[in-house]
TrEMBL record:
Ranges in a coiled coil: 49-76
Keywords on record: Coiled coil
Residue segments, region Disordered: 1-39
Entry protein name: Uncharacterized protein
Length: 92
């Protein structure tokens, strides 16, 4: 015996039409997307992903370039400064 507060069976036919018999557009209220629209959406997502990857590569390249410049600058200061002597490392 079913309880009056139980959840109705959604597969049961209502007004002569089951939910499974309805087209996808009726269930969502929109027309189903076409293959061309799917391809366009996929192309847009791929283009966005490529743009993101390019930006990430550019950032990584700039960081590596800055690291090389910094390492070069430190060596230049360390070895070309006339006021720094290698013997300074031995002083207490």
């Amino acid at each position: 015996m079913k309880d009056a507060m139980s959840v109705p069976d959604v597969t049961k036919k209502t007004s002569g039409v089951a939910l499974e018999d309805l087209p996808a557009s009726s269930a969502t209220g929109r027309a189903p997307p076409s293959a061309a629209a799917d391809r366009d959406a996929l192309s847009a997502v791929i283009a966005s992903a490529r743009q993101f990857q390019d930006k990430q590569r550019d950032i990584a390249r700039r960081r590596e370039e800055a690291r090389r410049e910094l390492a070069e600058m430190v060596r230049t200061v360390e070895f070309n400064d006339p006021y720094i002597s290698p013997l300074d490392a031995l002083k207490p």
